[in-house]
Structures are given as structure tokens and as C-alpha cells.
Amino acid sequence: MTFRDAVLVxxxxxxxxxxxxxxxxxxxxxxxxAKAADRTLVDAMQRINAAIQNGWFLLVFxxxxxxxxxxxxxxxxxxxxxxxxxxxxxxxxxxxVLAVTFGVSIPLNDRxxxxxxxxxxxxxxxGVRERFEAAWVRWNLVRTLLCTGxxxxxxxxxxxxxxxxxxxxxxxxxx
Length: 175
Prior knowledge:
Helices cover 83% and strands 0% of the residues. It has five helices and no strands. With 175 residues, it is mainly α.
């Protein structure tokens, strides 16, 4: 395996982890919290938003973009053939994930956190939830679709990369 293939594999794994995280929120976490009381949802999401700010998450979240960009740079000499267009598409899709995260999701999380302790919200817990939940769920679905699209593009780039390596091995008699 070449270094550029290793970077492509690493980008695929990292983006896959992010797609899985967004997917889990879309199909399990938020539907589960939808059935919870207002204060429970506010409290749970405040705790999740605090817990997710850790080194492992930040490494994969930011590393996904760096690995995708690195895969593009390492594939530039392919002259636009093979995996390059798919790696570029994945990078653009992941950039869109970041745009949604920084433009919508984080501001919603910040407003939720600014609401304060859910125990002290009294009747306003319903209002805090109303201003947060529907928008956050909708935009997380957008992130899920974008990130899953990026993962699909990287998966196809891996297929094309493997085909190119096999063809090269056949032509050079190494197979």
C-alpha cells in the first residue's frame, strides 16, 4: 500500500466515523429524546454538547478535512482520472458538513447552553426546547446526508484506486 492509498483509507475511516455519529443522532438519540420531557431534552443535549468537546472528537472532526485535502493533493498527479474527482467531491461535501456545523449546529448548541440550568427553567423549558430541537434535528439530518455522501465518494475512490493498482500490477508483470 502506498502512502497516498493509506491517506485515502484514513480519510474514509475518519469521514465514516463522522457519518456514523451524525447518523446515530438522526436515528436514535434525537428520536429517543423526542419522547422525553422538555427539561430532560435540554439537560441531555447540554451534557452531550459539553461531553463531545474532547480530543478524540476534535481529532476526527478536524482530521477528516485534513485527510480529505491530503488525499486530493496526493492524487493531483493522476491528471483528473481515477479517484481524484471522487476525492474532491468528498472534500467539498465534508466542507459543507463543516459549514452547517459552524453556521447552524454550534450556534444552536450555544443558545441551548446559554439558557442555563434546566432545573431552573421552570415553564420556559418548553420554549428553550422549541427554539432548539426542530432546527437542530433538521440540520443534523443535512449533515448526515452530506457526510454519508462524502463517505460514499471516498468508498468509490478506494475502489477506483484498487482497480488502478491492479491494472498497473498486471501491466508491469507484478501480478
